[in-house]
Each structure stands twice: as C-alpha cells, then as structure tokens.
Specification:
Oligomer: heterodimer
Order of helices and strands of chain B: HHH
Number of domains of chain B: 1
Strand order of the largest sheet of chain A: 2-1-5-4-3
CATH class of the largest domain in chain A: Alpha Beta
Radius of gyration of chain B: 11 Å
Shape of chain A: rod-shaped
CATH architecture of the largest domain in chain A: 2-Layer Sandwich
Number of strands of chain A: 10
Helix content of chain B: 55-70%
Radius of gyration of chain A: 44 Å
Structural class of chain A: alpha+beta
Shape of chain B: globular
Distance between the termini of chain A: 57 Å
Helix content of chain A: 40-55%
Strand content of chain B: under 5%
Number of strands of chain B: 0
Largest interface: A-B, 12 and 16 residues
Distance between the termini of chain B: 17 Å
Chain lengths: 403, 66
C-alpha cells in the first residue's frame, strides 16, 4: 500500500484548502466583474434609450415648428400652389440652408396631392425625386388622416425621422383647399454623434435590409461620400456609427427579438479596447422594428482592474500557500516530528543495548505525555531485562558442574 | 548449537569494521529481527526462525550476506 507522510498530507491539504479559497475568490471577483459590467451596460442602455427618445421628441418638435412656419410663409405657399418648381427652389433654398445648418434638418420635401414628389430640396436635380410616387407609411397616413404624421420612414434618400403635414392653401393647419404635403426630415444617423457627446459612449445604427433598397443605399452612400457597406452584414446594414471600426457593430441576432427596453448583448474587443455591447430596437412610423441602436460601453478600465485583482489574488494565494506550508511544517516539525524522531532514536538504541539514555520530556503537551509514558515503559523494560539476565545467570550457575 | 551466536559475532565484527554506531546499528537489527542481539549468548538455542530473521535483518540494515 502506498504511504504518504503526515508532512505531505498536511502540505497537500493546505495547498488544496488555499487553492479552493483562491478559486472561490476568483469566482466571486468574476461574478462581481460581470455584475459591474451588467450594471454599467444596463445604465448606459437606459441612458441611451432615454437620450435617443429625447432627441427624437425635440427633433420632431423643431421640425413641426419649422413646418408650421414654412406653411405660413406665402413665398413658399404661392409657388407650390402654382407648381412653379424654380420659384419654389429659390424661396426654399435659404430657409432649408438655415434649417440644415442650425437644426440638422436634411430633408425638405414638397409632395403633391397625388402623393407624388414635387420637389426634394436635398437634390433638386435628381429626376428620381420629381413626379415619382412617395410610397411610404407617413405620406400615405398623412394623406389618409389629413393631419400630422411623425416617425421614422425610409425614402429615396435614406432612413430619417420625418414630420409630414398637409399643406393647405391658407397656410393654416386646416383648410378646404389642399395644395399637397410638406415633409421635413432629419437623418437619425446624426443623433448618434449627439448621443456620444451627451454620454461619452459609442453608438451604431443598424437597419434591417428588407426595408431598404440595395441600389438606393449605394446611391445614398455615394452621395454622402461613404463606402458602400451593403454587404458588410447579412440581414442588417450599418447606417451610422461613432466608432472607427465598423466590424464591432456586427450582429447576427434577430433585431425583431430585441425587447423594446433593449438588451445587453455581449463583450467584444477591438484595438486593445474592450466593449460591452447592448442594443435597443427602433420602430418606424408604422411601429415596425426596422433596426436597432447599438450602444458600446468601454469597459477596459473595469476589465483591467479585475485582471489585476485576479493576478493579485493568485499571487497572494501562492505566497500564502508557501508561507502557511512553511509555518505549518516548521511547527509540526518542532512540536511533533523532531520529538518523535528522538523517541524512535532512543527506542532503537534501547534495543541496541543502551539502557542508560532516558527520554527527556521536552514540553508539557500531548507528545510530552507520550514521552513520559515511553520513559516509564523504558524503565520497566530495563528492569525486566535486568531481572531476566539475573535469572539467566542463576540458572547458568546452578547448571554448572560442581555446584 | 551456537550458530545464532556465531551470526551475532559476525554481525558485530561487520559493525566494528565499518565503524558504525554499535548501539544504534544493533538497535536497528533488533527491531528488524524482532529480538535483541544482546540476549544471544553461546548457550542460546539455534532457533531456525530466529536465524533466518537475523540474516534478513543483516541483509537489510548492513547489506551483509550471511
């Protein structure tokens, strides 16, 4: 049977106990790390959603006010009523420039009563934007309900937050004579930069390809002097982002499955930085989930801290194992092993013929009690031996002839 | 008769020649063999079992073939 010394058993037990403690600490620190990351990411997600909704609300308010002012402006109303495109462009251009520069309004459209595009100020020369049907939910709904319709909608020029309103002949919100519709829009990609400024996080806007047209997307990207990223992802396309590496926004999940309050997705690293990714869905004017805003939280400092804490825990455990083993073995050696060795040495010498060396009681403890017991046994043994020898001598003497 | 004693004498001689601690070595042999060498006298009967045990003890402790 294999034997293991008490020293080895004590050493192994110490190592096992401290290693288990170390593993426990590492598991705890990992759980704490995940909790911290989850908390920071969750808060960032909530902030981002609130920030996004606030931007949408303020943007809708700004555009609604601008729409009302535009409708009240006879220099716009008259050429639109007369379908005089040249005069309308001349009158709208300075207003549009001011709205674009000051409020980020990038879309200014006039749509006729048949829901066909009459003029798009974004590109006044693009024939595709003249006389073609403006088939999208907000225009159709505005025509049906004859009132404000706001929300995200896709047009020839991309996905934008749009405010659409019937344009009446009297320049008021209600009239008998409908001239057509007026639509102002703001690219939501621009919201990301504002959100970044407000929160310090990185953002990306992913749109579902099924709501987009590949050709139009290419034209739009070309117009914005951006590389065509249509084939970057399978189901989604990145419409805007604030981080240099677009690959961090890669998402193979289903945007439709994202809950409205958003979801923490995963942890991803790029260029030496570690990001916790989360996303919340965005809906268009018809309440369909058309994409998602991705929120990237740089958790590099948390990750570095936790790695340092882990390394320190491991180093401290190793140091503790060494110190505890050395102290325990030294204590065992001085309190038990050395004294047992001494008893063994005296017992060996006793049976080897040294009857004089006593066992010294070194300390009044358990081993000391054993030393005392052994010393008593030793004395009894020596006495017995002496008795035996004396008896042997007497027998020998009696058996000698002449006695 | 005296084979056990002769064996003891040979062992003592080996201990002396090798300049070993006499008491400690005899103690180890006694523990190994199960009886004390100091109790072997020329008159000690030659118990074959004791002879065998002492030879084995000598082989183990002193690496001495007897």
């Amino acid at each position: 049977m294999a034997t293991l010394s008490i020293k080895a058993k004590v050493g192994a037990t110490t190592i096992l106990c401290l290693s288990a403690g170390c593993i426990g600490l590492l598991v705890l620190s990992d759980a704490s790390y995940r909790k911290n990351v989850g908390m920071v990411t969750g808060e960032s997600l909530t902030d981002a959603r609130a920030g996004y909704n606030s931007l949408v609300d303020s943007s809708v308010a700004t555009m609604s006010m601008a729409v009302e002012m535009a409708m009240a402006d006879s220099s716009l109303r008259e050429p639109f009523a007369a379908r005089n495109r040249a005069d309308l462009i001349a009158a709208t251009t300075p207003i549009f420039e001011r709205l674009r520069g000051q409020y980020g309004i990038t879309i200014f459209n006039y749509i006729d009563t048949e829901q066909r595009r009459f003029l798009s100020m974004t590109d006044t020369k693009d024939v595709r934007l003249m006389g073609t049907p403006a088939i999208r939910f907000n225009v159709q709904e505005c025509a049906r309900r004859k009132t404000w319709v706001t929300g995200l909608a896709l047009g020839q020029l991309g996905f934008a937050l749009r405010v659409t309103h019937p344009f009446y002949g009297n320049g008021q919100l209600k009239d008998e004579k409908l001239l057509g519709y007026i639509e102002l829009g703001s690219e939501i990609g621009g919201f990301l930069g504002i959100l970044k400024k407000q929160t310090g996080r990185e953002y990306g806007l992913l749109l579902r390809k099924q709501f987009l047209n590949e050709k139009d997307w290419g034209i739009q990207r070309d117009r914005l002097k951006l590389p065509n990223n249509w084939n970057g992802q399978k189901e989604l396309v990145l419409a805007g982002n604030t981080w240099t590496d677009e690959s961090i926004y890669a998402y193979s999940g289903d945007v439709m499955a994202l809950p409205d309050e958003g979801q923490v997705l995963d942890i991803s690293s790029r260029s030496g930085q570690i990001f916790a990714r989360s996303a919340f869905p965005i809906r268009d004017a018809s309440s369909v989930k058309v994409g998602a805003v991705f929120v990237l939280v740089d958790i590099t400092p948390i990750y570095t801290d936790i790695r340092l804490a882990k390394a320190l825990t491991i180093a401290a455990t190793i140091a503790l194992i060494v110190v505890v083993c050395v102290v325990l073995l030294w204590l065992l050696s001085s309190l038990v092993f050395r004294r047992l060795d001494e008893i063994t040495r005296i017992a060996t010498r006793l049976v080897g013929g040294d009857y004089q060396t006593p066992v010294a009681i070194s300390k009044p403890d358990e081993i000391g009690q054993f030393e005392e017991l052994f010393e008593r046994l030793r004395r009894i043994f020596v006495d017995l031996l002496e008795e035996y020898r004396r008896a042997s001598r007497e027998i020998d003497d009696k058996s000698k002839p002449g006695r | 008769m005296a084979a056990l004693y002769d064996l003891k004498v040979k062992i003592d001689k080996a201990i002396e020649e090798r300049k070993l601690d006499r008491v400690a070595t005899r103690g180890k042999l006694a523990l190994q063999a199960g009886f004390m060498l100091s109790l072997i006298s020329p008159a000690t009967p030659d118990d074959p079992d004791k002879l065998d045990r002492l030879k084995k003890a000598a082989a183990t402790v002193l690496q001495l073939k007897l």
